[in-house]
Design brief:
The chain has about 280 residues and is α+β, with helices and mostly antiparallel strands. The chain is about 50% helix and about 10% strand. The protein contains 15 helices and 5 strands. The protein has a 5-stranded antiparallel β-sheet with strand order 1-5-4-3-2. A hairpin with a 4-residue loop joins strand 4 and strand 5.
Length: about 280
């Protein structure tokens, strides 16, 4: 079934979103030609969708199962007004962030499937985006149907040597099996953690083997949608030292938290995308 939604370029740009480092299974399927639009796809958990900008109506058309549309509206976070965040940024004196906003029009923070985002960011540690995508796709090909993400019970009892073979998971395979077993055995309830207050949710994540501060912050932002979460990776450290050199890291985080309360994670995504484009 096709659902249509009017979205401006400032409100929605899949090219920006899928290249922002927050999602690993959104892509451009076909490049439009002869008046036909680019077509995109996304997969999350047990759902998949295709979407494109309809040149005749200027609306975005989303093709998915009828009972999945509610999930996808939440996934794209359509209920949040990102233009309001942009207006606050435009009023600021932060020249780097203003440049980042111009470069990142149409960014949104996705509300991804909790289980998939959990395992995806365990895979992401000390890793690069092409390898992360390849590992995730290999898991989908081997232990699901190639489209949908394997469930905890699909991963819990795989021999570690098998899970490591050809997946580029390395030491992360042990973490994935351990987390999957904990979910299957009822010792780990990811949904319950996501409903905890920020500090308690963050602390609970750090108690799980295989999850450190950076991975926890990514799960908090891209899975639990705590918009005050601000992941710090090598790119963000580079931004702090090169573009906000007047601050120590602590001073910088205080500045972000005090100036952009409630959408720090969105600010981080704009900065991250912009800085990588400056390479």
């Amino acid at each position: 079934m096709v659902f249509s939604k009017m979205l401006s370029a400032e409100e929605f740009n899949p090219e920006v979103i899928m290249n922002s480092g927050q999602v690993f299974r959104m892509k451009r399927e076909t490049k439009g030609a002869d008046g036909m639009p680019d077509t995109y796809s996304a997969c999350s958990g047990s759902y998949d969708i295709y979407f494109y900008l309809n040149n005749k109506t200027d609306e975005w058309d989303f093709a998915c199962d009828e009972n999945a549309w509610e999930f996808w509206q939440q996934y794209f976070d359509f209920a949040t007004d990102y233009v309001k965040y942009n207006d606050d940024i435009r009023k600021s004196n932060d020249s780097f962030l203003k440049d980042a906003l111009k470069d990142s029009f149409g960014m949104r923070i996705l509300r991804q499937d909790l289980w998939e985002v959990f395992i995806s960011y365990v895979i992401s540690q000390n890793n690069n985006i092409p390898k992360i995508k390849k590992s995730i796709q290999t898991l989908c090909d081997r232990y699901s149907d190639g489209i949908h993400f394997p469930k905890p019970e699909d991963l819990a009892y795989i021999p570690e040597s098998e899970l490591m073979n050809g997946t580029a998971l390395g030491y992360r395979a042990d973490y994935i099996i351990g987390i999957s077993k904990a979910v299957v055995d009822g010792k780990l309830d990811i949904k319950s953690i996501s409903k905890l207050p920020y500090d308690k949710a963050y602390k609970s994540l750090l108690e799980i083997k295989g999850i450190g501060p950076k991975v926890a912050n990514c799960i908090m932002l891209y899975g639990f949608h705590f918009m005050e979460s601000y992941p710090i990776d090598t790119w963000m450290k580079k931004i702090i030292t090169e573009d906000y050199a007047q601050y120590s890291q602590k001073e910088y985080l205080d500045y972000i938290n005090n100036t952009y309360p409630g959408f720090q994670g969105y600010v981080q995504q704009l900065q991250f995308y912009h800085k990588r484009n400056l390479r």
